[in-house]
Amino acid sequence: MITNKKLNLKGYFNRRGGRLTQQRLIILQELSGLSSHPTAETVYRLVRKKFPKISLGTVYRNLNYLTNEGLIKQLKTNDDKFHFDAKFTDHLHFICQRCKKIYDLSKSQFLKSLKNYSGGQVKKIECYLFGICKKCKK
User: Fold this and answer.
1) pTM, full prediction
2) pLDDT confidence of 8, banded at 50, 70, 90?
3) In Å, how far are 16, 32, 68, 132 from 13, measured between CA atoms?
């Protein structure tokens, strides 16, 4: 999936003075292929399938690095764990307070109205909605 983006990523890292390591590439590939919002431990288990010698510490360091570089998002939820998201289209996050699952909510009129805020220019929107999901509500 990232194969033709690999050159763009390599150029991005070079311009920023960093390196696109094999570990970073595999982490980005795994995250970009998920619609869930995994924890670092889950990313670690996925990445180990392709890179068996990688350590949990290396995954944590690379997730922090990729977050600081703006290539992934780090979500703090009420389960005291960080979750990661590689989807950068405008969307909200709904977090179920029972099962702790995180759902993406698509772009809505609410987001459009925020982007057109007359008091200034909105460049980034981060929003968490908390409640009970449909599955848990039943």
Assistant:
1) 0.74
2) confident
3) 5, 18, 12, 40
